[in-house]
Hints:
Blueprint: H1 20-38, E1 45-47, H2 55-64, E2 68-70, H3 103-118, H4 120-141
Parallel strand pairs: 1-2
Helix pairs in contact: 1-2
Amino acid sequence: RGFEFASHSASHARLTWLSDAAVAAELERSREALIRRLGPGAGRAVAYPFGARDARVERSALAAGYELGFGGVHGNGSLLNLSRAPVYMWDVGDVPLGLRNDSLGALGRLVAHAANRCAVGTSIMRGVRSWVSGVSGARTRHPAPDT
Length: 147
C-alpha cells in the first residue's frame, strides 16, 4: 500500500505519435526531473499519457531507466504495460468511482473509458495548433515575394 510519484512524460505528449528520439527525450527529461526533485528512489514508473503505448514506447521506457509502465485500464501484465485505475476530477470521494465494487463502480469505469477515448482530441488539437503555428511562423520568416 502507498503511492509513488510516477512520470507522465515531459509534456504529456501522446508518445505513440512521436519519433523514437522524441519519445526518448520525453521520457528521459521527465524521469530526470523526478529524480532531481524527489531523490534517487523516484522515477521508477511511468504512466503513459492517454494510456497510449506500444512495444517501441515500452523499449524506450526501459532504456530511459523505468522499471514499471502503466498503460490504460487494460494492461497485459508485463511490467511495462500494467493496468491503471484512471482518476478524474469527479473522483473526489475517498475511493474513485472506478475502484468501487458495485454498480457505481461499473458506471465509473464506463465513464473513465469514454473519457480516455475522447482524450485523443487533446493530442489532435495540440498537433493542429503546432502545425498552424509552424506554418504561420514560416510565412512570417519567409514572406512571399511581391509579384
